[in-house]
């Protein structure tokens, strides 16, 4: 996809390379302030003072500082785990077959990453060391969820889930790719490449014909029936080729099934419209409001984040199912020899290797223009990091409330298109360090900013669970309460820190200060050590719907303007005439 090169506009190369009744008795004491958050799960149980028990648990976590954002609980307790669930929380003594002494450590609900495209074994291992217990793709996703869930069944370290992908569905319908080629976000770059190879980029460059539009909706409908967690769209990569009615129809689809619409909106940093506007965000927000639909705004740092954040907060205050997400990085990651960085172009694009481009050999700015051009000549495929966003924003982002934290990293593949094996040495990982250090990085920065610990625990674990609970998922996760599934992250509040850097050889370094991570009661990080080969990850998925038929009918004709007109001729409904590839400039 071509981009406007009149300014340093490299985001295209990156983001992709870049989803009651309450027993709680202290609802009013919500640390995350004015917004009501309790009552989203029928399993909410704020009882942290059970009496001691003589029962022998599978695992007990003793002496830890138990933190639960939903109940706003923060106190030293012992936790008993049985059959993969938190059975008991008490100040009394308990015993277990396995004992974890969590003295001086926080015992928190496992971190839920709402936006990742990395389901490969080594990438999951890095994320486990960063405290992650669940990875979801609510933004890119897959064309066929059965293929995705079958592939990771009993074959995933962490809990996993995906929505239906707009671009993958479009590549099936409009570029002739197969569902097998387009049903694992880990291989999204390959899927994009396959379309390129066929010289068929209709998914990104063409407006769907009325028939294709119908096919796209039918594939989504099938995906919803198959249990996809979200309706996704990365239409920020499709420029002007996605008419507003296509997005409106996808949001109606999400509403039809009462699920979230996950949006990488248009007019973000990769396009030629002003970067600091949130025009694309307004489009999906308007649809969500009209439909009373659920909405996730992906990586709001790309769409004028202060404004997008305020939109989220104001709608949250009104009780709407809407949340924002961000990932902690100011860098884009193009190849060093990408056209915009070649000697004749880089100055035109306002690039300066000594002020904004990181030398992968040192992890610091290039020493000189000469050393930059020398590396460009010598290793044109080398990935470099370019500062795309204001550095001070990183510190501001950690202050945002009730926002999901994600990494949004696409899996690093070998030149043969293979994933790194699980036992890869971390020094061999060459992808974005964010994959190894999203949560540790945010916790470290939040500490430096003096934020209360509960603030960050809330965002890391509870925000996604809270919002997904409203539509029937995550009712027993994202909470450190009796009766919840034992997805647990144990970290040291002063020592939790990132170790991965931008330097080659250090990008996969595991985060520090997170000695224990438990997925469904199984330790995937045990006293800081790996437990290679374990696959306790569970699918996050809606129940499959078998009755009824796949249909693109969105059942709300009464709202369509022509529904009021007697004898309206449907054939006069206007679609733009598709002119393939007429959007390149
Ligand atoms: Zn994106």
Overview of the structural elements:
By secondary structure, this protein is an alpha/beta fold. Among the domains are: 52 residues, Urease, subunit C, domain 1; 328 residues, Alpha-Beta Barrel (TIM Barrel), CATH 3.20.20.140. Helix content is 24%, strand content 18%. The strands form 4 sheets. Strands 1, 2, 3, 4, 5, 18, 19, 20 and 21 form a 9-stranded mixed beta sheet that branches. The chain starts with 55 loop residues before the first strand and ends in a 55-residue tail after the last strand. The N terminus is likely disordered. Zinc ion (ZN) binds next to loops. Zinc ion binds next to loops.
Regions with little confidence, pLDDT below 50 for 5+ residues: 1-38
- CATH fold field value of the domain at 110-329 and 389-448 and 538-585: TIM Barrel
User: Which cofactors or ions or other ligands sit in this model?
Assistant: zinc ion
Biggest sheet character: 9 strands, mixed
Proportion of beta-strand residues: 15-25%
DSSP summary: helix tally: 14
Alpha carbon gap, first and last residue? 10 Å
CATH architecture of the domain at 110-329 and 389-448 and 538-585: Alpha-Beta Barrel
CATH class of the domain at 110-329 and 389-448 and 538-585: Alpha Beta
Spatial extent as radius of gyration: 24 Å
- The helix fraction, in percent, is 10-25%
Shape assignment: globular
CATH superfamily of the domain at 110-329 and 389-448 and 538-585: Metal-dependent hydrolases
| Structural class by sheet pairing and helices | alpha/beta
- Number of E strands: 21
- Mean model confidence by pLDDT: 89
């Amino acid at each position: 996809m071509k981009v406007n090169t009149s300014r340093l506009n490299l985001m295209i190369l990156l983001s992709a390379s870049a989803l009651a009744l309450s027993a709680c008795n202290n609802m009013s004491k919500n640390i995350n302030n004015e917004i009501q958050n309790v009552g989203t799960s029928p399993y909410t149980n704020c009882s942290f003072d059970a009496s001691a028990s003589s029962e022998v648990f599978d695992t007990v976590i003793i002496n830890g500082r138990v933190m639960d954002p939903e109940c706003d609980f923060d106190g030293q307790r012992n936790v008993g785990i049985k059959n993969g669930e938190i059975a008991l929380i008490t100040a009394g003594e308990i015993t277990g077959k396995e004992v974890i002494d969590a003295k001086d450590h926080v015992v928190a609900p496992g971190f839920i990453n709402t936006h990742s495209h990395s389901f490969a074994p080594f990438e999951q291992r890095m994320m486990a060391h960063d405290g992650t217990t669940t990875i979801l793709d609510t933004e890119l996703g897959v064309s066929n969820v059965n293929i995705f869930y079958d592939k990771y069944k009993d074959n995933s370290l962490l809990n996993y889930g995906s929505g239906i992908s707009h671009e993958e569905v479009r590549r099936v319908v409009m570029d002739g790719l197969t569902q097998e080629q387009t049903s694992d976000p880990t291989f999204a770059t390959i899927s994009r490449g396959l379309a390129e190879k066929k010289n068929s980029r209709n998914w990104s460059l063409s407006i769907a014909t009325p028939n294709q539009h119908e096919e796209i909706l039918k594939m989504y409908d099938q995906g919803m029936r198959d249990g996809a967690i979200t309706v996704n769209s990365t239409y920020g990569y499709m420029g002007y080729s996605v008419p507003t009615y296509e997005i409106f129809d996808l949001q109606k689809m999400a509403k039809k099934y009462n699920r979230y619409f996950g949006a990488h909106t248009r007019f973000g940093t990769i396009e030629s419209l002003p970067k600091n506007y949130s025009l694309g965000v307004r489009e999906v927000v308007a649809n969500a409001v009209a439909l009373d639909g659920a909405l996730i705004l992906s990586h709001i740092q790309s769409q004028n984040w202060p404004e997008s954040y305020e939109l989220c907060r104001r709608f949250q205050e009104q009780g709407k199912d809407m949340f924002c997400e961000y990932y902690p990085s100011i860098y884009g990651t193009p190849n060093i020899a990408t056209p915009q960085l070649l000697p004749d172009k880089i100055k035109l694009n306002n690039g300066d290797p000594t002020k904004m481009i990181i030398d992968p050999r040192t992890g610091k700015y290039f020493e000189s223009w000469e050393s930059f051009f020398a590396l460009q000549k010598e290793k044109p495929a080398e990935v470099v990091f370019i500062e795309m966003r204001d550095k001070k924003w990183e510190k501001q982002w950690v202050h945002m409330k009730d926002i999901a934290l994600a990494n949004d990293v696409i899996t690093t593949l070998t030149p043969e298109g293979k994933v790194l094996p699980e036992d890869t040495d971390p020094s061999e990982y060459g992808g974005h360090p964010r994959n190894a250090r999203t949560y540790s990085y945010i916790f470290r920065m939040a500490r430096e900013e003096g934020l209360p610990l509960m603030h960050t625990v809330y965002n890391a674990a509870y925000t996604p669970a809270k919002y997904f609970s409203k539509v029937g998922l995550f009712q027993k996760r994202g909470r450190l309460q009796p009766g919840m599934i034992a997805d647990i992250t144990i970290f040291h509040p002063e020592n939790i820190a990132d170790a991965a850097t931008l330097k080659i050889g250090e990008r996969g370094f595991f985060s520090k200060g997170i000695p224990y991570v438990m997925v469904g009661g199984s330790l995937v990080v045990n006293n800081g050590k790996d437990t290679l080969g374990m696959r306790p990850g569970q699918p996050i998925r809606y129940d499959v719907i078998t009755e009824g038929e796949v249909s693109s009918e969105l059942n709300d004709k009464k709202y369509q303007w022509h529904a009021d007109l007697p004898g309206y001729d449907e054939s006069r409904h206007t679609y733009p005439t598709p002119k393939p590839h007429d959007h390149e400039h």
